[in-house]
Amino acid sequence: MALTKNTILSHKEIEHKIRRIAYQIYESNVNETEIIIAGIESNGYVLAKKIKSQLDKISDISSTLCKVTVDKDEPTKPIKTSIKSEDYSNKSIVLIDDVLNSGSTLIYGIKHFLDVPLKQFKTAVLVNRNHKKYPVKADFKGISLSTSLFEHVHVNLSKQPYEAYLD
């Protein structure tokens, strides 16, 4: 018997969530002239690129994409960013990941950016799982769902059709 996957978000729903998150980011940064869109490698970065593309369509805020590399197995290792800290100092930043599960990846990513002064710092995720070990929240989220600890959320943003599913 073949197992069927439990679809959380379809392609169309994911595109809608990306557009809605872009509008929320715009609304919270309406008085800014520049914003940094920082995506956690790999799926978070793909999501960040898609959100930046939508943001560029709906606003005249200058946005810079930043890739954030976090060792998810050892998140205390030094974090790398594709832009220098001077380039995001005193700016508004949105840190993006695909799924917020325990919160460890996001909180270590946040910690990295707190080493420089910032105007504003927000977080965005496509799927918020409500299983946090750390006191971190997503300011902008596509969907929140309560799952068991044994279930895993998969997000495919690299090829169409996009999908998020549980197994």
Sequence-ordered SSE layout with sheet pairings:
Layout: E1 6-9, H1 11-28, E2 34-40, H2 43-58, E3 62-69, E4 80-81, H3 85-88, E5 92-100, H4 104-113, E6 120-128, E7 140-144, E8 153-156, E9 163-166
Parallel strand pairs: 2-3, 2-5, 5-6, 6-7
Antiparallel strand pairs: 1-9, 3-4, 8-9
In short:
The chain is an alpha/beta fold. It has helices at 11-28, 43-58, 85-88, 104-113; strands at 6-9, 34-40, 62-69, 80-81, 92-100, 120-128, 140-144, 153-156, 163-166. The longest helix is centred in the N-terminal third of the chain and has 18 residues, at 11-28.
Q: How would you explain this protein's 3D organization?
A:
The strands form two sheets. A six-stranded mixed sheet has the order 4-3-2-5-6-7, with helices on both faces. Strands 1-9-8 form a three-stranded antiparallel sheet. The chain contains four helices and nine strands. 29% of the residues lie in helices and 31% in strands. Helix 1 (11-28) crosses helix 2. With 167 residues, the protein is α/β, with parallel strands linked by helices. The model has no long low-confidence stretch (mean pLDDT 92).
